[in-house]
């Protein structure tokens, strides 16, 4: 009886041992719903920041014009533009890794943060070119931006799902912009394609590819932390 008591005590003490602490962040990311919210918030914040910066370029160049009564921020942008862009960025950034998982084709091309940052820099450069560089005509500008946007996809993505989603979302965003302009929410100077500028789909396509890459990288970082947790357990 004494021996059995000693064994049971040892078993209880062994079962009472706790795993070494892995830090508060490792513990938080074990909850998938929490990580989804965190990723969504980060993507939303990035989208808002890029919207403020890029729209500032467009307004300064008088490419887009907002009515005076809706200009309410120091960045000369309508208040609803950054939240809309942030929401779209969060949806796109969460959708890309989800589609990759559904198709069973994990994206492994240039999966490092330095590549993502270069992609963001190229996207900002494309938007800057649309606002600052003077071309002979709108057709030349549109063709140039289309080539740059496809080059961005080829350099940093190269996935069929990425290209397909980029085209579909760019067309939907262009249609939404046309409806907003048609209803007088804002306007483009010198519109040359159904109330808007013909190069706008190229900018949307490049933006979708950029946010998709950021979303994929955040999802990959989450997977790495999850695998570390599994190994520690």
UniProtKB/TrEMBL annotation:
Q: Where is this region: Disordered?
A: 1-20
One MF term from GO for this chain?
lipid binding
Highest taxon of the lineage: Eukaryota
Q: Which UniProt keywords apply?
A: Cholesterol metabolism, Endoplasmic reticulum, Lipid metabolism, Lipid-binding, Membrane, Steroid metabolism, Sterol metabolism, Transmembrane, Transmembrane helix
User: Cross-referenced Pfam families, in alphabetical order?
Assistant: INSIG
What is the stated purpose of this protein? Mediates feedback control of cholesterol synthesis.
Name of this protein: Insulin-induced gene protein
Does the UniProt entry include the keyword Lipid metabolism? yes
Q: How does it sit in the membrane?
A: Multi-pass membrane protein
Protein source organism: Hucho hucho (huchen)
Compartments, as annotated in UniProt: Endoplasmic reticulum membrane
Give the record's GO biological process terms: cellular response to insulin stimulus; cholesterol biosynthetic process; SREBP signaling pathway; SREBP-SCAP complex retention in endoplasmic reticulum
Q: What InterPro entries does the annotation carry? A: INSIG_fam (IPR025929)
Q: Which PANTHER family match?
A: INSULIN-INDUCED GENE 1, INSULIN-INDUCED GENE 2 PROTEIN
Q: Which family does it belong to?
A: Belongs to the INSIG family.
């Amino acid at each position: 009886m004494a021996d059995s008591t000693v064994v049971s005590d040892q078993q209880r003490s062994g079962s009472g041992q706790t795993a070494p602490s892995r830090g508060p962040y490792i513990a938080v990311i074990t909850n998938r719903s929490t990580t989804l919210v965190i990723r969504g918030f980060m993507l939303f914040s990035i989208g808002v920041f890029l919207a403020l910066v890029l729209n500032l370029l467009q307004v300064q160049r008088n490419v887009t014009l907002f009515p005076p009564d809706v200009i309410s921020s120091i960045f000369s942008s309508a208040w609803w533009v950054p939240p809309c862009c942030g929401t779209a960025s969060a949806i796109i950034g969460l959708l890309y890794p989800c589609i990759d998982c559904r198709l069973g084709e994990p994206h492994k091309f240039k999966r490092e943060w330095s590549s993502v940052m270069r992609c963001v820099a190229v996207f900002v450069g494309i938007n800057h070119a649309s606002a600052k560089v003077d071309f002979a005509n709108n057709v030349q500008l549109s063709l140039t931006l289309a080539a740059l946007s496809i080059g961005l996809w080829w350099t940093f993505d190269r996935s069929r799902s990425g290209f397909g989603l980029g085209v579909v979302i760019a067309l939907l965003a262009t249609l939404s912009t046309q409806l907003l302009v048609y209803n007088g929410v804002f306007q483009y100077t010198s519109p040359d394609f159904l109330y808007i500028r013909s190069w706008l789909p190229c900018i949307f396509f490049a933006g979708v590819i950029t946010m998709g890459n950021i979303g994929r990288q955040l999802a990959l970082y989450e997977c790495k932390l999850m695998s570390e947790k599994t190994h520690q357990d």
